[in-house]
Design brief:
The complex is a heterodimer of chains A (about 40) and B (about 240). Helix content of chain A is about 90%, strand content about 0%. Chain A is an all-alpha fold and about 40 residues long. The longest helix of chain A has about 40 residues. Chain A is rod-shaped, with a radius of gyration of 18 Å. By secondary structure, chain B is an all-alpha fold. Chain B has a single domain, classed as Four Helix Bundle (Hemerythrin (Met), subunit A) (Up-down Bundle), CATH 1.20.120. Chain B is globular. Classes of the chains: A mainly alpha (about 40), B mainly alpha (about 240).
């Protein structure tokens, strides 16, 4: 059995999972802070 | 902790800390995982599949540490009414759940070449699956409570009760000796060879810092949204 297929699948899952989580959290933070800043300027 | 009870003071620290945690975490993950994948030796029993531990162990650690954080924040919310405790607990739920899911998925991918099966109703695997369900339930409860405009007491109580599962996961390998191996790292030391241990520790530290950055980002987003909602309520009144 080729172990590398399982290793690549595991690393791909973690890269996609952690990468998406980081990116989505960053975008949500930027949007919320920008909206709050815009509200302050009203 | 009470020092950080003021959201303005918390944000003053969180804003510069977020990129530091994120970038240093990403760098350490790259080093730990890079060494684990291309430099560390294969295991004499597991072969090449041992390389999955450099992501599986940090995911397991953060899945459990996440709920421990939720329980501590819930305690602070219920006992001391710390204004940021509920925000912190809610911010931990999604990354904690993602890491618990990644732990199960990577463990499954490690299990197939090593144990010959993707899944076994073993004590450790089952209690980790229960942790994932707890995260899902916590997220649903927290969302429902927020939409209702509640104080989050029920969510905090759920966060505390769910913590019962953490020692069950920790000691499952001692209580039910089934397929999952016993603990390799403890307070007394480690049975892992140093050539594999160091990249594992670096990777775990890197993922932990990244987890911290994600939690801070989610807390900042939550605080900004709360600020807007409060402003809208004042304008409507």
């Amino acid at each position: 059995m080729n172990h590398w297929l399982f290793i690549i699948a595991a690393y791909a899952l973690v890269t996609i999972g952690v990468g998406s989580l980081t990116l989505l959290s960053y975008r949500a933070m930027r949007k919320a802070e920008r909206d709050a800043q815009g509200f302050n300027q009203l | 902790m009470h020092f950080l009870a003021n959201p303005a003071r918390f944000l003053k620290i969180a804003r510069p800390l977020t990129p530091w945690l994120g970038w240093s975490g990403a760098l350490l993950v790259a080093v730990g995982v890079g060494v684990g994948l291309f430099v560390a030796p294969p295991d004499y029993l597991q072969g090449e599949s041992v390389r999955i531990i450099y992501i599986h162990v940090p995911a397991a650690w953060l899945g459990m540490a996440g709920w421990t954080g939720i329980a501590l924040a819930s305690l602070m919310q219920l006992v001391w009414r710390h204004p940021l405790a509920g925000v912190a607990a809610r911010a931990i739920a999604v990354p904690g759940g993602v890491f618990a899911a990644l732990c199960l998925a990577t463990g499954s991918l490690w299990g197939r070449p090593t144990w010959g099966t993707y899944w076994e109703w073993d004590g450790r695997l089952t209690s980790m699956l229960i942790l994932l369900f707890l995260y899902v339930a916590y997220g649903a409860l927290a969302n429902a409570d927020r939409e209702r405009g509640g104080e989050g007491r029920a969510t905090a109580i759920f966060g505390l009760i769910g913590a019962i599962n953490i020692p069950v996961i920790r000691y499952s390998v001692d209580w039910w000796r089934t397929l999952h191996q016993g603990k390799s790292i403890g307070v007394a030391g480690s049975s892992i060879d140093s050539a594999m241990l160091w990249p594992l520790l670096i990777s775990a530290l890197g993922f932990s810092l990244l987890f911290g950055a994600i939690v801070l980002m989610r807390m900042r987003a939550d605080l900004a949204r709360t600020k807007i909602e409060a402003r809208l309520r004042r304008m409507a009144a």
